[in-house]
Design brief:
3 copies of one chain form a homotrimer. The first copy, chain A, is α/β, with parallel strands linked by helices. In chain A, 13% of the residues lie in helices and 30% in strands. The first copy, chain A, has 5 helices and 40 strands. The first copy, chain A, starts with 5 loop residues before the first strand and ends with a helix.
């Protein structure tokens, strides 16, 4: 495999970027400012790394207009260097060859329909009445249960399970180990024993969503659990039954969303955050890492309750005081009145 | 498939509920108060949804005695509407046809025993000396290691792994991706390197337990990790080695329980909570979401340490003060003495 | 299978321990102080269990020098009783028979190389240009993607996936359901839609590492995600792209480490802790359970922010005060100036 090669002027032209310096500079890969070698294109998007610009060994760099003057090598000036870099880097991504067809080992229910332009890998099984669209790819070991749909161009990387009644739109990407459509956690206490509340709904995932590795999205109790289009979930996330997540929202790793919560569009949720059930978060809310949302949020903005570390001996002292904070506050109230 | 259909009088009779209104009302599905169509049965269990009762399009509703008067349509009056609804909804649950027998692709050790009335799906493997009981179901891609037992009527939905020495009772339900019996996290530092502490125990899961998707239950170091009967675990939960969980306890998603903790019966643990190792929690304790238990709890009741979000700019200010709370408290002490 | 049997003098000799009492005592298994039967060897490492020493039914016990005098039965005196016990217990661990060779069902790319002394179980698939070393074991259902390497003696227990460009050193142990090399969570907002930042790097795992069940380690965006040698990860951990973890560090269950964080050597991270991205933690740092690290840590020591539970009614009162802590502190400041 010959790696691809582009000249800088061509890249500027292709992605609508301003070229500064030698347009004939050849680019045959991408790198970080600190790690790039000659022949590679670096980028400066996060100001944290600005100090690395001067010493970069990259042959060219993608920068913003305000950083361009400090760039020691030819550069491509972009409104959003990160977006421009992402698009250019995609040229260098190894893409496994498409191989439409069904692997001989796959176990497919006779009532299922697999488009001839779909690819079904080894050890996959597909249940009754399920449909796999054109250009869809099921990597090794995927399990698609009954009454599921995988939209055109969607990819289940490997060992993905759609348990039952899961409908993926177009160009959805589901990473390894993710489980969509498992029973929601519905229990009712009946005479000292739990009885299981049937989970009759499904999961609907909009176009262009991405679901991380080992993430779980339960199917709804009655109605469906819904991800609108372009929702992005990182790894090891738990989405309870009947949750609804608005378009273009992104949740970082290890977030847990309890049943029937509704999250708006363009929300960002930091890693390890928790969102209680039966509440509503409006559009354009950011929740920072390891925060806990227990009530509806009705105004856009940033919300937090994650507490950063201190040396343990200080933390323990402060924590002990916290446990008497109400008493302390009453004492202050009394003093104020003196 | 013709969907099932029942009249309201028949349902009242079958589940011991009080009928109010036309007993001939035909029910052919269930729904939420807001979402139900004609022909469907709704329910009102969570007071949060009471306002939706008046406008429901459901043909009938399951309600408590105090809500019955406000119900605009025929109703079934239940002591616990949620329990009654769960039982009725089960009539409408699509149940995949049982298909006893072993799929041709399954890899089964000659010393394993699979009951003729069990079902083993494609791409399953079963190790030495393991036993699969009557009516048990192993969905696609399950791995049962050596010396395991799957009790009668238990279901491993798909891609479940019982690593070694895992014994499931009767009617246990294990969801996709769960891993029971992986090595506990036992390490000892020896001259600057970790050495692995052998994990010689197993996992014992009582009758009627349910284990969520991608949940992990490690096997014991010496003795077994134990779930008593009717324990309910949601998704993405971590249960360390030698943990013991009492009967009828339920843990929500993303809870982590460290090694050798003992949780009593009828406990409820909220999502994302953490329970440290080598401690004991008595019966009937509730721990709310994202709380951390670091010491034994000896009295029933509800315990918390999860902090709800504030706007980040307020949160950061309060958090900064928290880090000096001990100093603040000393200052107050001094003022009080003035 | 005849269980192995050793006399105490032999064990003392083999592991360099001091023998006190009858060296002819026969040991045919290990147990806890409380649970051991005659014929078994107990151990006392955690002072929490010291009270159980007097009443143990074990035939012998591994103890420290200071506990030896109180031991009612023959004992082996060790500098670190836990390390000594771990080594002895390994003698009693059932080890499945090695069975080199490739299962007939495995799907292996013609360009992959599997050492003849490696073992590849049923329903495994191995991608293009990947290499499986001598003595390596792939349990049932493992997926090794393109351009991966499994070093000599490494074990993928079952249903492990190496997605792409994952290189494991020697004697690495990866537990069931773990996913190494999934796409890092790289997104850029472009005109109201997310675009995916290609993840061109890989994952490098040093010798003697252990990766827990259902743990995820994403591959790097440009450079690699790296675990140095002897790193130990428990279950359900999330390691973001381009993270680097130093040698001999150990992370407990459900920890989340965001992208480009660097953790030093000999660090310990408690369960459920979160570590933000683009920061550095120096060597020999301990972070306790459910703590959140948002800034670099430059001094060794123990750091915390996990808050232990209180009765909920007290907790709620203190929490309410916390939300006005800054105001409270200002009031105190004013009082002090009076």
């Amino acid at each position: 495999m010959q790696p691809p090669r582009f000249d800088l002027a061509g890249l500027a032209d292709r992605f609508g970027l301003e070229l500064r310096g030698d347009g004939g500079t050849l680019i045959e890969g991408v790198g970080t400012l600190a790690g790039a070698r000659a022949g590679q294109l670096g980028f400066l998007a996060n100001p944290r790394y600005r100090a690395e610009l001067a010493g970069t060994a990259a042959s060219a760099v993608v920068v913003s207009a305000q950083d361009a003057a400090d760039c020691p090598v030819p550069c491509l000036v972009a409104k959003s260097p990160y977006v421009a870099f992402a698009k250019i880097a995609a040229l260098f991504e190894p893409v496994p060859a498409a191989a439409p067809g069904v692997h001989a080992s796959a176990a497919i229910d006779p009532s299922a329909h697999v488009d001839p332009a779909a690819q079904v890998g080894p050890f996959c099984s597909i249940g009754a009445r399920s449909r796999i669209g054109a250009g869809a790819v099921l990597g090794p070991g995927c399990v698609v249960g009954d009454d599921c749909e995988v939209g055109p161009g969607s990819v289940l990387v490997a060992r993905v399970t759609l348990v039952a009644r899961v409908r993926l739109g177009a160009r959805v990407r589901v990473h390894t180990g993710a489980v969509l459509g498992a029973d929601g956690f519905g229990l009712a206490m009946d005479g000292g024993h739990w009885i299981k509340v049937p989970q009759l709904g499904g999961v609907v995932v909009g176009d262009d969503c991405e679901i991380g590795a080992n993430t779980c999205i339960d199917r709804g109790a009655i109605e469906d659990t819904v991800l609108e289009q372009d929702v992005r979930l990182d790894n090891l996330i738990q989405i309870g039954h009947n949750v609804r997540i608005g378009a273009h929202s992104a949740l970082a790793g290890c977030v847990a969303v309890a049943g029937s919560a509704r999250i708006g569009a363009y929300c960002l949720v930091g890693g390890g955050a928790g969102i209680a059930g039966h509440l509503e978060i409006c559009d354009r809310v950011t929740v920072t890492a390891m925060s806990l949302v227990t009530q509806s949020i009705t105004a856009p903005g940033e919300y937090s309750s994650g507490m950063p570390v201190q040396e343990s001996r200080l933390w323990r002292r402060n924590g002990a005081r916290f446990r008497q904070l109400d008493q302390l506050a009453r004492k202050i109230g009394a003093l104020s009145k003196d």
